[in-house]
Design brief:
By secondary structure, the protein is α+β, with helices and mostly antiparallel strands. The protein has one domain: Alpha-D-Glucose-1,6-Bisphosphate, Chain A, domain 4 (2-Layer Sandwich), CATH 3.30.530.20. It has helices at about 10-15, 15-35, 65-70, 75-80, 165-175, 175-195, and strands spanning about 45, 50-60, 85-90, 100-105, 110-120, 125-135, 140-150, 155-160. It has an 8-stranded antiparallel sheet. The chain is globular. It starts with 8 loop residues before the first helix and ends with a helix.
């Protein structure tokens, strides 16, 4: 029998059901506010199907620089993860078939591991990789990151496809939107330091 603990991912996912409706309402308002104000720093999240999450964010940096920030461990270790996190492990073999593994040490004092394999790399346009949270082994999603530049700004569109609607909903309820938004805020600041 499965016994829940405070750090049990299943408990964490189920405990966030109540946040989902509020979050989706916030997304709708956030997208409207971003369009009205022209604020590109908003992470827009949509659910185009029952097994997908699409996230979109625009950065004030050229595509080649943004792509590079995703392709080298010395860059990723500076921005990947939520606010206050450090990355004691950032291993990646950036080539099709190459493996990657990141471990973040977060403000709550816990370490969280993530791993996957690069499936496709088209510099500076696209990266396709698998994504697995080590705390939930066997739940592997496929992410496609598309990099599109217009007028010196780069929009990253990440499409994540899950094996099931339960996996997709569990990811939504895990707080991933907050972590992704904080990572992208850190990336924006890091890109400015490289310019």
């Amino acid at each position: 029998m499965h016994q829940a603990t405070n750090h049990d991912p299943l408990l964490l996912w189920s405990a966030r059901f109540d946040r989902l409706a509020e979050y989706l309402r916030h997304l709708t308002l956030g997208e409207a506010d971003a369009m009205a104000t022209g604020n590109n720093a908003t992470l827009n999240v949509t659910l185009p199907s029952d097994r997908e999450i699409v996230m979109r964010r625009t950065f004030d940096a050229p595509r080649a620089l943004v792509f590079e920030a995703f392709s080298k461990p010395e860059h990723i270790s500076h921005w990947w993860g939520p606010a206050g996190a450090t990355m004691p492990v950032c291993d990646m073999d950036f080539r099709p078939g190459g493996k990657w593994r990141y471990v973040t040490h977060e403000a709550d004092g816990n370490d969280y591991g993530f791993r996957g394999e690069f499936r496709e790399i088209v510099p500076p346009e696209r990266i396709v990789w698998t994504f697995e949270f080590e705390g939930m082994p066997g739940h592997v999603s496929v992410e496609t990151l598309a990099f599109d530049e217009r007028a010196g700004k780069t929009t990253i569109t990440t499409t994540t496809v899950f094996d099931s609607v339960e996996d997709r909903d569990g990811m939504l309820q895990s707080g991933m939107e907050t972590g992704a938004a904080e990572s992208y805020n850190r990336l924006e600041a890091y890109l400015k330091s490289l310019a």
